[in-house]
Amino acid sequence: MTTSTRTSPSAAFAVTAFVAGAVVSVVLGVYGAAHEPTGEAVSTFGFGSMIAMKVWLALAAGVLALGQLVGALWMYGRLGRPAPPWLGTAHRAGGLVVVLLTLPVAYHCLWSLGFASYDTRTLVHSLVGCAFYGALVTKVLVLHGPATPGWTLPVAGGLVFTAVVLVVLTSSVWYLTAVGVPSGP
């Protein structure tokens, strides 16, 4: 095998990370489609209803994701100013908060409501919701695994960000514009 056709270990791990993310996405989708939705909330975390909890937590995650985008652009030198030393820590903490905010939302989407495909919006929402967690798995593997090609982290992060934005647009933003403000805490 020549050097030009051999896959380097870092490229092989990058492919493995993206395949693992795809598998997670598919498994979540299959579970959501096969599981009989209960229609019940496990917890509303003090909100007036499950829908209110999902709308507000997802919207908060979407707003924080915009901050994540700015932080990533700043760390990659795309904002024209050097990034402060604390930005990496803030970026990691902000990302953790985004994920924590999405977990009860996703749990209720899959367990209470299931994978929905009765119109275009819900189908896109269900697909992208599953893809978000697959992209997240990919990004975590790329971050904590062996060195990968330089494009893998920005692509994985971009997929996570894109998925969050699409999920929020097809859920919280849609709900607020089509239905109105849900009851609060």
Q: What order do the helices and strands come in, and which of them pair?
A:
Elements: H1 9-34, H2 50-75, H3 87-113, H4 120-144, H5 152-178
Fold and architecture overview:
- The protein is mainly α and 185 residues long.
- It has one domain.
- 71% of the residues lie in helices and 0% in strands.
- Helix 1 (9-34) packs parallel to helix 3 (87-113), helix 2 (50-75) runs antiparallel to helix 3 and helix 4 (120-144) runs antiparallel to helix 5.
- It starts with 8 loop residues before the first helix and ends in a 7-residue tail after the last helix.
Task: State the main characteristics.
185 residues
Q: What's this, in brief?
A:
This protein has helices at residues 9-34, 50-75, 87-113, 120-144, 152-178.
- Work out the strand percent: under 5%
Radius of gyration based on Cα positions: 18 Å
Largest sheet: none
Q: Could you spell the SSE succession in H and E letters?
A: HHHHH
Structural class: mainly alpha
